[in-house]
């Protein structure tokens, strides 16, 4: 594999010692205001020979006899050059560079710019903030930290989150921002192909996208708000952009080893207020007969019933979900768990607490990193294990990530970033769970329902009915603990995302970046949708569905950058480039409507015709873009951007669309030389931009949508629920 060859090459070069045939030894120290600078870089000009200062600011460097100059640099300080000549001892002093020391943020296309120079809203979150109060889904950590962002979490192990920036911006249903990892876009949590059924319904439960990135691997997150901030990304950035920069090992002197561990526990915090006056049932009667409101015909049961209800109809009332039953005053009645015996009818105040488990999350991450003058690397492995607050509800995730960069020559830097994510669950949380609300009978204890296996010998059902579980009723509700154990929603997912980039520096002002990256995942999901039973003498077997999903997005782009100061007052920062994106999606679905052998979840285990669906979607977008920023005196900035996209999902004769933006910003405190304890910083900005959306594949013509065949054989089609775009 080509990428593995590159990684091996990078790793071998990074740990090379350099030129061992030097003939002259230089030494000295690098200081600023009398204090040593740790990790300052000393290079022989026009070569790859160099070193860094130690903890006392001291360095030693062997150089060829014909070496002419040393170049000394340090982040946040002005770079200096020194003539070597016959000198072997150096006392070097660097001065702070005020321009460099300005706060730098990552903006569109991964371009780093000073925050004060931007004419639009950008807010960033650093790594330490993400791990202080961590969530399995890192985007949840943005809630309350970034102004204008709204995060709606799935609150399920491994679940995704719905994110909107400054409210909804599209009527097409997808208002999610674009996620960009190390400069390469990735599919979001709700990137669901049209025409899906269960996938659409449970996209939030199954997570994906940013929710699969480990917080331990993130260096910073930048949120680009508004059309101007995101215009360079085109149509997908109409809802904003969240840019994630991962850790790469730069700045780590020598080899560093890092280990992080985190354990959290959770329980439901808010308890609904329930009534504890009336039991379940109707007509002021609470009585379990057969779970289906059957008539009371047994002599012993009639005698028991008439003792507490002298005039009520001789029928059970457990088959309803309302609570219009008898007062819960301790009277003796039959329950689902007492068989032919009686027990007091009392409320169970702690039934709500008995429903939930104590959820837990464990995170472990180990990373090794290193850097020198020739490059840097960081490799990490993380493991996440979650147990939900519902019975038999879990999630696991393994994160492998390698970031590596090599200064191949003084003018070429090669960077490789890649991650493999293995995740899955034996049972995802059920998407619909109605009983814990107002419909559950207050005299029924969730704790006893959890132990339903202990009551199978005494549990009474109607003649002709056979259920694999005991429950508080059998009209329309399953035992939720049985459902969580046997009617599972499992999945097994593999994801790879990575990119390789080449940065070519022609001059100090002119550089070219070439980059390509891909995001590929496959997910196999098996959902047991029906249990076996016999009801009213009619037997049915289990049913289940299996779907295999595959999605890939590949992005390739180039950016030519010109960044230069003209004197002390004027600056120009310009980019021009192009991009190519392809998207592929495939879904194979098989519904086994009746199994031959219960408990065997193989699509060939079918007693009737299976329901099969398949869908393939493909999309291609080609783009050109440009941006230019003019700065004056470090306090006035004018930004102009433009982008044009050609989308394959639009009509051939009308598939081109243009995105311009203009912004102007001024720093008043610098412009008018304001120095005050009351006003430390003031800035004004104005902007205009035009963005929009194309459409999903195959949305140009109004067509009929295939549905599940009637009687498993007759094709059925219905009108499309979405209006075509052409």
Task: Describe the fold and architecture.
With 726 residues, the chain is mainly beta. Helices cover 9% and strands 43% of the residues. It has eleven helices and 36 strands. The strands form nine sheets. The chain has a 13-stranded antiparallel beta sheet with strand order 18-21-22-23-24-25-26-29-30-31-32-33-34. A hairpin with a 6-residue loop joins strand 22 and strand 23 (394-409). The radius of gyration is 33 Å and the shape is elongated. The model is unreliable at 1-22, 98-102 and 189-201 (pLDDT under 50).
Brief account:
This protein has 726 residues and is mainly beta. The protein is elongated.
Key features?
single chain, 726 residues, 13-stranded antiparallel sheet, mainly beta, five-stranded mixed sheet, disordered N terminus
Could you outline the blueprint of secondary structure elements for this entry?
Blueprint: H1 2-14, E1 24-32, E2 35-36, E3 41-44, E4 50-52, E5 58-63, E6 69-73, E7 80-83, E8 89-93, E9 104-106, E10 112-114, E11 122-126, H2 127-132, E12 149-153, E13 161-165, E14 178-181, E15 184-186, H3 198-201, H4 203-206, E16 218-224, H5 226-230, E17 241-246, E18 254-266, H6 299-308, E19 332-333, E20 343-344, H7 351-355, E21 359-372, E22 375-387, E23 394-409, E24 412-425, H8 435-439, H9 446-450, H10 480-486, E25 489-505, E26 510-530, E27 533-535, E28 538-540, E29 543-566, E30 570-592, E31 611-632, E32 636-647, E33 656-667, H11 668-671, E34 683-689, E35 704-710, E36 714-719
